[in-house]
Amino acid sequence: KVGWYNAVLPPAFHLPYPDDTLAFVVLSTPSMFDKALKPFVNKEWLKIIRDPVDQCVSHHLSRVKEKFPDQKVDVIFDYEILPSRKPKFLAQTAAHVAGAAYYYQRKDVKLDPWGKKKIYGVCIHPKYGGWFAIRGLLLFPDIQVLFLEQSAPVDCVSTEEKRIELLEQFNFHWQDGRYRDIIEVRERYSEEQKTYFATPPAERFRLLGLTQ
């Protein structure tokens, strides 16, 4: 429910829908690269003018909208921002309240070792660890789900030591990706996919065999 999300955030970040409005958080799993992105690029390469992943996600979510011709469906993508430069929605908070992935933050550590340092939180998925991404929100403004019960996300990094290790790795060593394997995972990015996301955006077109 939109109300679950709005309840944990200040008004500046609220989504402008009634509390009982139905919403879905959309995640991409490791297999997205081979199953969705590469086929999309092969088919749509003449039309690609900005970020291939963003356009691929947009393409697939527009197809989801088509499945509901009698419903109003609003889509918000993870990369969209407001004129104030704030994101249109806080993806990690949305994933947490939807029960999709646990958003580990500084407040989840009792004995905080970081002093005045800025520490960012990170979502961990119970199956994929950090090998996934939050891509968007699907909102159904005309569907009110008064009796929908909230599911808590799986707390898969449950010890203090592991939480400290996770936040340390994410904040200070994120480039090496070790934080993604903080738990045993079922699937991770392929070497090709790792290379793609480790490459500066301007050079990714070349990896996909595209000219920018």
From TrEMBL:
<dbReference type="GO" id="GO:0032451">
    <property type="term" value="F:demethylase activity"/>
</dbReference>
<dbReference type="Pfam" id="PF16690">
    <property type="entry name" value="MMACHC"/>
</dbReference>
<protein>
    <recommendedName>
        <fullName>Cyanocobalamin reductase / alkylcobalamin dealkylase</fullName>
        <ecNumber>1.16.1.6</ecNumber>
        <ecNumber>2.5.1.151</ecNumber>
    </recommendedName>
</protein>
<keyword id="KW-0288">FMN</keyword>
<dbReference type="InterPro" id="IPR032037">
    <property type="entry name" value="MMACHC"/>
</dbReference>
<keyword id="KW-0521">NADP</keyword>
<dbReference type="GO" id="GO:0033787">
    <property type="term" value="F:cyanocobalamin reductase (cyanide-eliminating) (NADP+) activity"/>
</dbReference>
<keyword id="KW-0963">Cytoplasm</keyword>
<dbReference type="GO" id="GO:0005737">
    <property type="term" value="C:cytoplasm"/>
</dbReference>
<dbReference type="GO" id="GO:0009235">
    <property type="term" value="P:cobalamin metabolic process"/>
</dbReference>
<keyword id="KW-0560">Oxidoreductase</keyword>
<keyword id="KW-0170">Cobalt</keyword>
<comment type="similarity">
    <text>Belongs to the MMACHC family.</text>
</comment>
<keyword id="KW-0285">Flavoprotein</keyword>
<keyword id="KW-0846">Cobalamin</keyword>
<dbReference type="GO" id="GO:0031419">
    <property type="term" value="F:cobalamin binding"/>
</dbReference>
<dbReference type="GO" id="GO:0071949">
    <property type="term" value="F:FAD binding"/>
</dbReference>
<keyword id="KW-0274">FAD</keyword>
